[in-house]
Amino acid sequence: MNGRIHSFESFGTVDGPGIRFVVFMQGCHLKCKFCHNRDTWDVCSGTTYTAKQIFDKIIRYKNYFETSGGGVTISGGEPLLQSEFLIELFTLLKFENIHTAIDTSGNLDITDSIKKLIDLTDLFLLDIKCINSDICKNLIGMDNKKELEFAKYLSSINKPIWIRQVLVPGITDIPNDLITLKEFISELKSVENFEFLPYHDTGKFKWIELGLSYPLEDLRIATKEDLDKAKHIFYSN
């Protein structure tokens, strides 16, 4: 089976623990207005590889994984759209005891294929777009029902989760929503880490290169003050 790949990063340090080989999958069903990888949306683009071809790229870095506590992270695009391909890749990686992580929105139905992939995955970097479903739908083109159910499912099987939310000024930093988000996360039993990611527009040029208008053209980037304010609300009793 072939997978459609956008790109690779050999020494990632922000997509899970340790030094990581990051595979960016091609294709996404969401329409996030703040997306910094707009060129990954097209499900028919990218370069095709077999799982063995990617495994052969990864295995060369095994020593770095072992010394740093790292591994492989699959990002995108939306990795779960190619679950069957990733099952094949992760099966190869598990034979080498290589740590596996998936960076996902979780905004899909939990099929048998996805359940099998979840079993092969050591860590999920789960992007909760916005706990407010109406805002979520406006921001990414879908409500948040499936992504929240995905988080609950991971929790129910005690699968490690790192939750991240992009802090978009005036959109995902509403105080009541942050409190609701905190309450939701507190009900999950396998969350190991939570992080606000400050909104930035460094991916704007990709929209322009594709001849597209950037949806958040007039929105300012998130500042340290925005982050501090959100953290104060989120972590206060």
What does this structure look like?
The protein is globular. The protein has 9 helices and 8 strands. Helix 3 packs parallel to helix 4 and helix 7 packs across helix 9. The protein is α/β, with parallel strands linked by helices. The chain has one domain: TIM Barrel (Alpha-Beta Barrel). The mean pLDDT is 97.
Task: Give the strand line-up of the largest sheet.
Answer: 3-1-2-4-5-6-7-8
Tertiary shape: globular
The class by helix and strand makeup works out as alpha/beta
Instruction: Give the percentage of residues in beta strands.
Output: 15-25%
- What radius of gyration results from the CA coordinates? 18 Å
- Write down the CATH class: Alpha Beta
Total beta strands: 8
Instruction: Say what the CATH topology is.
Output: TIM Barrel
The CATH superfamily label reads: Aldolase class I
Return the average pLDDT rounded to an integer.
97
Low-confidence stretches at least 5 residues in length (pLDDT < 50)?
none
Order of helices and strands: EEEHHEHEHEHHEHEHH
Number of domains: 1
Helix content: 25-40%
Looking at the chains present, what oligomeric state does this protein adopt?
single chain
> What's the total helix number?
9
> Largest sheet at a glance?
8 strands, mixed
Question: CA-to-CA gap between the ends?
Answer: 50 Å
CATH architecture label: Alpha-Beta Barrel
List the helices and strands and how they pair.
Blueprint: E1 2-12, E2 20-25, E3 47-50, H1 51-59, H2 62-68, E4 71-75, H3 83-95, E5 99-104, H4 112-119, E6 123-127, H5 133-140, H6 145-156, E7 161-167, H7 175-186, E8 191-198, H8 204-209, H9 224-235
